[in-house]
Amino acid sequence: MIRKGMKLYSILFGVCPKCHQESMYVEKNPYKLTDTLKMHERCSHCNTKYQMEPSFFYGSMYVSYGIGVAFAVAAFVISYLLFQTSLVVAFLAIVFTLIAFMPVIMRLSRNIWINLFMNYDKSVTTKASRK
Ligand SMILES: [Zn+2]
């Protein structure tokens, strides 16, 4: 199961990579396109600064490339192998999937990227939840 304290939890839900207490994103819904990448500057629980350096999240573009390929392969397998569509339809399915999931892919890649540099810190959590 996915629970707090696992890297996957922070990656899937976009919560602070240090304390897993709150979302890094201002807007919960990634499909509100004007706010897809709008993030809080710091975590209000543990005061972690998300953007460690000015161009920190540029690196997440490499991650989003990888995730994009994974989504494309999944779309291809589902349409071409599972539903046995033609290659053209399978190709369209890939394009459609990449467009439809773009906000999710963009956030996922940021979440993965930041989790490469920051780890869950239990001491921060217990301090924050002890109210
Ligand atoms: Zn935090």
Characterise this structure:
The protein has 131 residues and is mostly helical. Helix content is 52%, strand content 0%. It has helices at residues 7-13, 60-82, 87-100, 102-117, 122-129. Helix 2 (60-82) runs antiparallel to helix 3 and helix 2 packs across helix 4. The mean pLDDT is 94.
Report a brief summary of the structure.
This protein is an all-alpha fold and 131 residues long. Helix content is 52%, strand content 0%.
Q: Characteristics of this structure?
A:
131 residues; mainly alpha; 5 helices; 0% strand; binds zinc ion
Strand content: under 5%
Task: Let me know the number of strands.
Answer: 0
* Proportion of helical residues: 40-55%
Give the overall pLDDT as a whole number.
Answer: 94
Radius of gyration, in Å, reads 17 Å
Uncertain residue segments: none
Main β sheet profile: none
Distance between the termini: 27 Å
The run of helices and strands is: HHHHH
Characterize the overall form: elongated
| Category from helices, strands and their pairing | mainly alpha
Identify the bound ligands.
zinc ion
Number of helices: 5
